[in-house]
C-alpha cells in the first residue's frame, strides 16, 4: 500500500542524508507490534477482572506488567536513537556479482538486535557494538555503472518485542560495477609497432605479440606466471621482433560486436593483460588510457569501461 504523497514528503524532509548520519529523536519513530497490542489487551482484561472481583493482588500484577511495558518503550527507543552512521568503502565488483556496502557505526553503548534493510531485500540483523563497528549490506549488482544503495530502513524490537522503533536514512553508499568479463573470449590481440594498432607478425624477443596455450619446451621466462597464480590456465607470452611495439586494446577493432559485448571483451582482455604483467593501453571513443601496467592502471581502465556512455546519465 503506497503512502499518501504529502506524508511521503513529510518523511523525506525529516530523513537524514549524507556521509555521516545521526539518528536523532526527530527521525526515530516507535509503535506497538502485534504482540504489544495483544499484551495491552491482556492488561485491559486483567484490570477489568481485578476491578470486578476487587482482588488486590490482581491490581498489583496488572500494574507491574503495565510498568514493564512502559519501561520497554524507553529501551526500544534508546536502542536506535543516537546511533551514528558513516559510509564505508565499497570495493568494485563485476556485473552479476554481489556488492558489499560497508556501513560504519559509532555508538556509546551496545545496541543488540538492530536490523538494516535495503529496499525489498531481507534485513541484515546485527548487534551494534559500543564504539566503532561495521555492518555489511549485500546487494546484487545486475548491470555495470554506479550502484547506489539508496534509502535504508533501520529498526529494532529489543528488548521484548512489544514495540518496534524504526528510522529511515539515505547515506552516500555507492559501488562501482565493472562490465562482466566475456566467457570464452579470444586471446589477446597482438602488439603493434606504432600507435595505430597495426599488427606485426615476425616473432622475436623484443615486444609482446599475444598469449597462446603453453607447449612443452616453452621457456619458463615466457610463461604468464601471474595468470597461473590467479588460478588461470598456463599461457605463454609471444613476442615480436619489431622495436617499439605496443599492446592496444582497441574499441574500434571490435566492429562486429555491440556496445555491451565490446565492453565485456575489453574487460576480459584488461584482466588477462594485467595477469600476464604486460604494459597495455585501452582505446575508447572519446579517449584512451595508457599504455601502462599495474593495479592503478587496471582499475583506471576498468572504471572507464564501467562508466562508458553513462557519464551524462543520472
Q: Would you mind describing this structure in some detail?
A:
The chain folds into two domains: 15-177, no CATH class; 203-307, no CATH class. The chain is 28% helix and 33% strand. Strand 7 and strand 8 (124-128) form a beta hairpin. By secondary structure, it is α+β, with helices and mostly antiparallel strands. The strands form five sheets. Strands 1, 3, 7, 8, 11 and 12 form a six-stranded mixed β-sheet that branches. The protein has helices at 5-14, 34-53, 56-78, 225-229, 259-275, 295-307, and strands at residues 17-18, 20-22, 29-32, 84-87, 93-94, 98-107, 111-118, 124-128, 131-140, 145-148, 152-156, 163-171, 174-178, 203-213, 235-240, 247-250, 280-284, 287-292. The longest helix is centred in the N-terminal third of the chain and has 23 residues, at 56-78.
Number of helices, where a helix is a run of at least 4 consecutive DSSP H or I residues? 6
Total beta strands = 18
Q: What's the SSE pattern? A: HEEEHHEEEEEEEEEEEHEEHEEH
Shape: elongated
Considering DSSP H and I runs of 4 or more, what fraction of the residues is helical?
25-40%
Q: What's the pLDDT, averaged over the residues?
A: 86
What gyration radius follows from the Cα positions, in whole Å? Answer: 30 Å
Domain unit count: 2
Distance between the termini: 28 Å
- Tell me the strand percentage band: 25-35%
Structural class based on helices, strands and sheet pairing:
alpha+beta
Strand count, sense and closure of the main sheet?
A: 6 strands, mixed
Low-confidence runs: 193-205
Amino acid at each position: 500500500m503506497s503512502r499518501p504523497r504529502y506524508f511521503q514528503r513529510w518523511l523525506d524532509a525529516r530523513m537524514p542524508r549524507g556521509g555521516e548520519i545521526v539518528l536523532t529523536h526527530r527521525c526515530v519513530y516507535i509503535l506497538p507490534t502485534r504482540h504489544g497490542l495483544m499484551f495491552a489487551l491482556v492488561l485491559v482484561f486483567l484490570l477489568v477482572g481485578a476491578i470486578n472481583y476487587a482482588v488486590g493482588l490482581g491490581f498489583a500484577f496488572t500494574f507491574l506488567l503495565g510498568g514493564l511495558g512502559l519501561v520497554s518503550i524507553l529501551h526500544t527507543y534508546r536502542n536506535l536513537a543516537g546511533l551514528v552512521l558513516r559510509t564505508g568503502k565499497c570495493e568494485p565488483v563485476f556485473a552479476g556479482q554481489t556488492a558489499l556496502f560497508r556501513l560504519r557505526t559509532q555508538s556509546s553503548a551496545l545496541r543488540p538486535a538492530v536490523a538494516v534493510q535495503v529496499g525489498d531485500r531481507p534485513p541484515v540483523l546485527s548487534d551494534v557494538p559500543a564504539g566503532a563497528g561495521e555492518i555489511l549490506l549485500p546487494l546484487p549488482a545486475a548491470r555495470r555503472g554506479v550502484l547506489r544503495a539508496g534509502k535504508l530502513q533501520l529498526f529494532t524490537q529489543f528488548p521484548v518485542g512489544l514495540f518496534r522503533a524504526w528510522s529511515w536514512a539515505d547515506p552516500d553508499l555507492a559501488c562501482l560495477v565493472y562490465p562482466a568479463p566475456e566467457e570464452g573470449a579470444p586471446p589477446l590481440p597482438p602488439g603493434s609497432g606504432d600507435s595505430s594498432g597495426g599488427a606485426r607478425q615476425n616473432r622475436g624477443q623484443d615486444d609482446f605479440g599475444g598469449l597462446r596455450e603453453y607447449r612443452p619446451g616453452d621457456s619458463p621466462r615466457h610463461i604468464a606466471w601471474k595468470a597461473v597464480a590467479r588460478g588461470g590456465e598456463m599461457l605463454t607470452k609471444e613476442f615480436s621482433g619489431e622495436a617499439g611495439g605496443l599492446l592496444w586494446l582497441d574499441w574500434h577493432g571490435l566492429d562486429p560486436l555491440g556496445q555491451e559485448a565490446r565492453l565485456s571483451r575489453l574487460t576480459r582482455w584488461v584482466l588477462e593483460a594485467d595477469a600476464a604483467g604486460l604494459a597495455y593501453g585501452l582505446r575508447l571513443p572519446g579517449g584512451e588510457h595508457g599504455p601502462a601496467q599495474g593495479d592503478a592502471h587496471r582499475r583506471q581502465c576498468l572504471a572507464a569501461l564501467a562508466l562508458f556512455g553513462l557519464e551524462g546519465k543520472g
